[in-house]
Amino acid sequence: MKKLLLLGCAMLFALLCRAQQTFPVNGAWDIRPGQYAFTNATIVVNADQTITNGILLIKDRQIEAVGADVKIPKGYVTIDLKGKYIYPSLVDAYTGYGIPDAPRAAFAQGGFGRAAVPVSTKPGAYGWNEAIKPEMNVKAVFHADDSKAEEFKKNGFGTVHSVIRDGIARGTSAVVTLGNERDNFVILNDQAAANYSFSKGTAATNYPSSLMGAIALLRQTYYDAQWYKNQKEEYNISLDEFNRTQALPQIFEVGDPLSVLRANKIGKEFGKQYIFKTDGQEYRRIDAMKVTGGSFIIPLTFPEAFDVEDPLDARNVSYTQMKDWELAPTNPAVMEKAGIKFAITSYGLTNARDFWTNLRTALDNGLTEKQALNSLTAVPAEMLGVADKVGTLAKGKMANFIITSDDLFKKDNVIFENWVEGRQYVVSKIDVTDLRGNYSFASDALQNVVLKITGTPGAYTVNLERTGADSTRATGTITRTGDMVSIYFDLKNKPSGNVRLNGYITKTSPLTFNGSGILPDGSEIKWSAAYTGPAAPDRNRNDVPKANNVAGPVIYPFMAYGATELPKAESVLFKNATVWTSDKDGILKNTDVLIENGKIKAIGKGLAPGAAKVIDATGKHLSPGIVDEHSHIAGSGSINEGTQAVSAEVRIADILNSEDINIYRQLAGGVTTSHILHGSANPIGGQTQLIKHRWGVLPDDMKFEGADGFIKFALGENVKGSNNGPITGVARFPQTRMGVEEVYIDEFTRAKEYKVARAAKGSNVRRDIELDAIVEILDGKRFITCHSYVQSEINMLMHVADSMGFKINTFTHILEGYKMADKMKAHGIAGSTFSDWWAYKNEVAEAIPYNGKLMHDEGVIVAFNSDDEEMARRLNQEAGKSVAYGKMSEEEALKLVTINPATMLHVDKKVGSIMVGKDADLVLWSADPLSIYAVAEKTYVDGIPYWDIEKDATNQKAIKAEEARLIQKMIAAKNKGAATQKPAGKRPRNNESDEDDEFVSGDGVGQNNSTGK
Question: Do 783 and 839 fall into the same domain?
């Protein structure tokens, strides 16, 4: 008796403790412990443990016990689940659940009739840039949404990770359950992770307007946060919160694999290991993804097949899109095979019902059920710091579980119930008769009819098939209310039109219906249907028969002219070529050149090949690879960061795009090295990057090893916004050519002071990556290439350089260089120009085609550049124009695009001429390389044949065959019921000249912020 009394007191005390809530109750207290015992179930505890005929005990919100021999205490409601399964409820690692929509903001940017917003206008002691908002907290804005929760719960989710997707530094996220309770009871982890992206979102501040600007801003924020810890000058909410969240898991939302690598470099710079939330394209560069060491959150947003039955539509689908359609469903399996830790999210699916369809598609493409379950339960729970609460079934964990009819991943499995925090949510009633099957149909008006009901309870599909002379097929809808059903379908043959049937279940074994209906002519009929056997499952709209699941290979890069394997360096002996050395040896007739291990091994006549492959170059010409001093290819997310007068902190290296087709096309024109410049939107632009055209490698592998750093400066119309339209509100400084001069004086003055301050003993001067680049110029470690046109401005910058103690390496464009050649020679400044461009804007009114020759005659190092993706493919012809206009010798003319640009870029010891020991960057031409008839037959970079005209012809045939195969596969998928999309005909926008390209920024698309060359 005493024990019972104590037990009763303990239970009463527990109930009273549970009742002590901070919210008052308007009425009587109703506290129920919620004690349930689920018996005889197959219980999947986790991906590695399954219990047959198991028992699960739950009390209130927690699991009390799980096992095969669990004693059921008195007072528990027992539920027999014989033949059913219990799984942990799923965990979605990335959602916007419970987060209010962020207000849309116009893409702010100076010029083009819009007011500039240089710094934040947000009230409060926040940071200067609105895209950095680590102070945002999901817990402060979260509110449970029953309707959205229902979508998740129907798919088996019990817990989700809620993220504010706005800004570059996005603040902290939270893990919440989908329980139907107050917000106070559903938040499991209010500080789940710190979140980042490259999208500025709704920030009104102009900066950044480019991907490289976003990267620079985040890097600067890390440095600012480090400085902030040790200073007492200011209070900054944003930096304070940024520091506070660094101990949390760090999640970075990115898109393609190259952006994963960009984010990973930031992480490595600051000692952070990010979890990458991606768009599911890891399969394209799976080895590089594994090397990051990061975990991933991947979606199931597989692209629909394109409707390509019309050949014109097929022309509007790119090779990349076709390959991605086929290979995207293999991504989870590829990730699993690579041993990369990943969670699966439903984020990005337009329709929640596609989740299980797409997951099963991933299973059909090689993902194992074990990995699928892990990636939807234990892995996300561990990532987000809630593994002690959810993700598996164990004593003390939250009572989050689902009850299913069968193995969770079977196509005909039904999720009956989803219990969240010990509360039941009914998806499909367990005790309701399953209607799926084939039925004989009887009616006087409709003869020879068979009905087939498929799908899942709650989402049935009815198909009618009529045989005989008036045969027809129709797919309709069926809805059920208790024992009542309503069926609707459209007949194509007699009687054609809509048929509406109502009926009810009259017998359950076998299942039988009786009812009445209305035919298209309005007449009434009586009908009945009797179950005859199970129906074969429908072809799901995204299912492709396994026999057709053999996918083509991944190629590098993932686009047309990619290859399954990268080419290797060759030992080659070119025999009897006309060799244009671009060196003191001049042009050598009938000469051999041997390359080995990526270098030029020997030059001479009658060389022995040894083990080298011999190429008969009789009648052909061999030249150094072309060097383009001024290019804007191979960049992503805008080539300009023009929102500030000085953007020296941004780096082209951060946005290199190794999958730009122009790399391959320019190899076909003999280009082996390109200097990728920032645009000309501001007086001091970004840091440049010298690359080699190594087609198929990753961005960092394109970089020219050991090359000096350069930076883009600019003068003229572009930097003062002459072509930006009417100015409204606050405009970006400078607006005049006088203002441009002041920008330079101010910046270099600040840089000198900054250098001194940073060097002082015990200094805690904030590191400024913008000024770091300017200090490098002052120290002779970074070199200037300056966009220029007008004589007066060229004079101005040379005067500023003299007075401030820095040097100008190159004036690029410089179409009035012929006026300044003597001063350029005296200052040791090179000139990179165009062959014969003029009259395309006011600044070039005095350009002449003899400009290059006149500068050359004065002793200036002169190059011809492209500044244009198409022109770069014929720079050899541009060089030839100097012979036509200025009577320059052919030997000197070719130097304009070989050794001269190599010299001005400080890489002439490695490339630009054919000399023993230099890099084997060579072009074999069909004719004199200055001729308009010359064709580059082979182009070598580091002795690797990245371009071969014969292989290219073979590649084109292979691409056509692969496209034809994929088109047939998509047509077959459509014919089998797969959903399709209409080709949009979208082509990627290229970085032409100094113009900006599109940069997606949050909700909108950035506008061009620079005009002209």
Answer: yes
How far is residue 622's CA from residue 593's CA, in Å, rounded to a whole number?
A: 9
Q: Which residue has tokens 């930097």?
A: 719
Cα 364 to chain centroid distance, Å, stands at 25
Concatenating the DSSP letter of every residue in 971-984 gives HHHHHTT--EE---
What six digits make up the tokens of 641?
Answer: 């960061």
DSSP letter for each residue of 725-786:
----SSPPSP-SHHHHHHHHHHHHHHHHHHHHHHHSTT--PPP-HHHHHHHHHHTTSEEEEE
User: Residue 537: its pLDDT value, please?
Assistant: 58
**Are both 791 and 864 inside the same structural domain?**
yes
Tokens of 643: 């929102």
Residues with Cβ within 8 Å of 153's Cβ and at least 6 positions away in sequence, in order, are 178, 418, 420, 425, 427
Tell me, what's the pLDDT at 1002? 31
Residue 1004 placed within a domain: no
Same domain, yes or no: 419 and 452 = no
C-alpha to C-alpha distance for 235 and 719, rounded to whole angstroms? 35
Q: Which residues contact 355 (CB under 8 A, 6 or more apart)?
A: 155, 300, 346, 349
Distance, in Å, from the CA atom of 500 to the CA atom of 481, rounded to the nearest integer, reads 16
In the predicted model, residues of the chain with pLDDT beneath 70 are: 1-21, 29-32, 103-115, 458, 468-470, 492-495, 536-549, 724-730, 985-1013
How many CA atoms, within 13 angstroms, populate the side-chain half-sphere of residue 398?
27
Task: Please name the residues in contact with 322: beta carbons below 8 A apart, sequence gap of 6 or more.
Answer: 306, 962, 963, 966, 967, 970
- In sequence order, which residues have a C-beta less than 8 Å from that of residue 778 and are 6 or more positions away? 748, 751, 752, 755, 805, 806
Distance between CA atoms of residues 489 and 261, nearest Å: 52
Strand partners, 941: 944
| Residue closest to 373 by CA, chosen among 66, 617, 663, 89 | 89
Last residue of a domain, one of 379, 401, 426: 426
Q: What is the 3-state secondary structure (H, E, C) of 284-339?
A: HHHHHHHHCCCEEEEECCCCCEECCCCHHHHCCCCHHHHHHHHHHHHHHHHHHHCC
Q: Do 246 and 194 meet the contact criterion of CB atoms below 8 Å apart?
A: yes
**How is residue 656 annotated by DSSP?**
B
Q: Distance (Å, rounded) from C-alpha 38 to C-alpha 734? A: 74
Structure-token pair, residue 764: 């805690």
- Are β-strands 511-518 and 599-604 bridged in parallel, bridged antiparallel, or unpaired? unpaired
Give the separation between CA 520 and CA 441, rounded to whole angstroms.
Answer: 18
Contact 165, 130 (CB under 8 A): no
What CA–CA distance (Å, rounded) separates 124 from 272?
29
Buried (b) or exposed (e) across 560-584, using 16+ Cβ within 10 A? bbbeeeebebbbbbbbbbbbbbbbe
pLDDT tens-digit map of 702-734:
999 999 999 999 999 999 887 765 544 457 889
Find the CATH number of the domain harbouring 463.
2.40.128.20
**DSSP β-ladder status, 922-925 and 936-941:** antiparallel
Residue 450 and residue 410 share a domain: no
For residue 94, the domain's CATH number is 3.20.20.140
| Cα 775 from Cα 779, distance rounded (Å) | 6
Q: 224: exposed, middle or buried (C-beta count within 10 Å: 0-12, 13-18, 19+)?
A: buried
What CA–CA distances, in Å, run from 39 to 52, 394, 984?
Answer: 10, 16, 54
Q: Report which of 446, 590, 602 is spatially closest to residue 529, judged by C-alpha positions.
A: 446
Structure token digits, residue 469 = 């002379």
Residue at which a domain ends, from 921, 948, 975: 948
**Do residue 813 and residue 868 come from a single domain?**
yes
Rounded distance between C-alpha atoms, residue 940 and residue 925, angstroms: 12
Residue 368, classed as helix, strand or coil, is coil
User: Which residues constitute the domain of residue 468?
Assistant: 437-533
Q: Which residues contact 987 (CB under 8 A, 6 or more apart)?
A: 318
- Total domains in the chain come to 3
DSSP-assigned beta bridge partners for residue 196: 169, 252
Backbone φ and ψ of 83, nearest 5°: 85, -5
Residue 62 lies in a domain: no
